[in-house]
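TICKET #2291
ISSUE: user wants both folds in one file
ATTACHMENT 1:
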Amino acid sequence: MGSPLTQAGLLLVNAIGSIVLLIVMMRFLLQLVRADFYNPISQMIVKFTNPMLIPLRRVIPGLGGLDVASLVLAIGVQYLILALILMLATGGANLPFIEMVGWAFVGILKLLFSIYFWGMLIVVIASWVAPGSYNPALILINQLLEPLIRPIRKILPDMGGLDLSPLVVMLGIQLAEVLVLYPLKQVLGIPSGLIMGL
C-alpha cells in the first residue's frame, strides 16, 4: 500500500480515465452500429470526443465504415491510464512501455466485454421495471445491443413471449472473458491487480 496521496492519485486517474475511456469507446461503438446521431446522449459523446478525434482523423482515415481514429484514440487513452497508474504505483521506475501496448489492447477488449455485459443487464432490468420506455439512454443501449442480440433471437425457439437472448449473450460474454481475456493476460504478463478497462 502506498501513501494516502498515492492512493488518492490512483483513485482520480482510474475514475477520470475510465469515464474518458468509456465515452471514447462509446463513440466508436455507436458509429459502428449506426446509432441515432440526434439522441441527446450521442450528441454529448460527439461534442466531448470531437476535439480529440478531428485532428486524429486527418492522420488516420476510416476503413470500410469503421472509425479507426476513435479506436486508436481509445487504445491511446487506455495506454495513458496504464502509464499513469504504473508511475504512481512504482514511482515511474522501469515502465514496460512496449509491453504496455499489448496491455492497452487487452484493456480495450475488457472494456468492450464490460459495456456489452452491463448493457445487457440494464436492458433486462428495464424490460421488467419500465417496459416500452422512451428514455434516451435505454434507446441508445438497445441500438448498441440489437446487432448482437438479433442473430441469437432468430436461433432460439419461441418461449411464449419470454426473450432469453440477452441472458445467452451475457453468458457468452462471461465465457469469452474466461477463454480469451485470462489467457491473454498470462501470455502478455499483465501484473495481477492492474486495473484494466472498467
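ATTACHMENT 2:
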Amino acid sequence: MSSILLSPPHIPQVQIPEKLVLQIASVITLEINRAFVILREIASGKDLKQFLSVIAGLWVVSILGKWYNFLTLVYIAVVLLFTLPVFYEKYDDQVDAVAEKALIEIKKQYAVFDAKVMSKIPRGQLKDKKF
C-alpha cells in the first residue's frame, strides 16, 4: 500500500516504562519466594498430614501423566474449569452432602491409617536448640 501512496508507513514507537517492569519483577520475586517457603515447610515434614497429601497428589499426577499427554490434560482441565462451577451452582445441596460424607469417610480412613501405621513409626526426642 505504501508503494501506491509513495509515503513510508508511520509505525509508532512502543516503550514499556522501566518502573512498571521493576514493579512486576518485584511482585513475581515475592510470589516465588513465598512459594519456596511453602515448599520448604512441606518438604521439612513438620506437618505430616500436609506432607502425605502432597505425596498423594503428586502420585495421582504421575499416574495421570502416564495415561495422557500434556495437551490432553490441559484440555481436560479447561473443560472442568468451565463446567464444574456451573454444575456446583445447579446442584450445590447434593454436592455438599456427598462431599461431607466423603470427608467423614476420609477422616475415618486416616484415623485407621494413623493407628495402624503412623503410630508404629518410632520418633526421636525433640531437643530444644539454642540459637
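RESOLUTION: both attachments delivered.
EXTRA DETAIL ON ATTACHMENT 2: Helices lie at 2-5, 18-44, 48-67, 70-90, 92-116.
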